[in-house]
Prior knowledge:
Blueprint: H1 11-14, E1 22-24, E2 30-31, H2 34-50, H3 57-70, H4 72-76, H5 85-90, H6 93-107, E3 114-118, H7 122-136, E4 142-143, H8 157-166, E5 171-175, E6 191-194, H9 201-208, E7 221-223, E8 227-228, H10 235-255
Parallel strand pairs: 1-7, 2-8, 3-5, 3-6, 4-5, 6-7
Helix pairs in contact: 2-3, 6-7
Amino acid sequence: xxxxxxxxxxxxxxxxxxxxxxxxxxxxxxxxxxxxxxxxxxxxxxxxxxxxxxxxxxxxxxxxxxxxxxxxxxxxxxxxxxxxxxxxxxxxxxxxxxxxxxxxxxxxxxxxxxxxxxxxxxxxxxxxxxxxxxxxxxxxxxxxxxxxxxxxxxxxxxxxxxxxxxxxxxxxxxxxxxxxxxxxxxxxxxxxxxxxxxxxxxxxxxxxxxxxxxxxxxxxxxxxxxxxxxxxxxxxxxxxxxxxxxxxxxxxxxxxxxxxxxxxxxxxx
Length: 269
């Protein structure tokens, strides 16, 4: 009945030559560091102590465990920009995993790999830039809400993206998923890392689509790094399940269903 009102074009239908993206599932199960585990347990302990007296205790705990999973230093340290690089890498499983991935991509001389790293938190964007600079000898550009979209500006958004794409060989760029929406094409990138995840899967997919779009000739690999603990289901685990459920619901709504048959009601006869 509602089919005439549904007009939905899929990339697979209009761009049959576009390689399907590949998700790297293993990075979703990075073991928490001891430093991270202690901070996480501390946040849960604070919630148990305050939930009956502090009306905002649950929201504060949610924000805390999200930040701890993204980068524990941003939650616990006052001056993250002065922390030693080895602490930033060794105490944050996501940061350590990212460095190893980038090392492998940079070592592939013929791969010409280019990586987009999506991150919402501005302080963490600067840490990502600092860590990459320490290991690879260049500071990746950061494009966020502070980056000018005015083409007359010296370092405007499009100029930074164009420079990222033009550079031969391995390269990386740090982008805010909120600041880089429609109209941004980054087909030179063939790896997309969602270092922090949004609450809305459509936002994530829109961010990935900056690279996976018409004109892309290479397979885009997508990464959603997450941390896990043997003691409890982590924030990352729960958020990944929530986003997967939302994606499945959206796909089901758009795909529709076939006609009902009598057999569909067999259990109720």
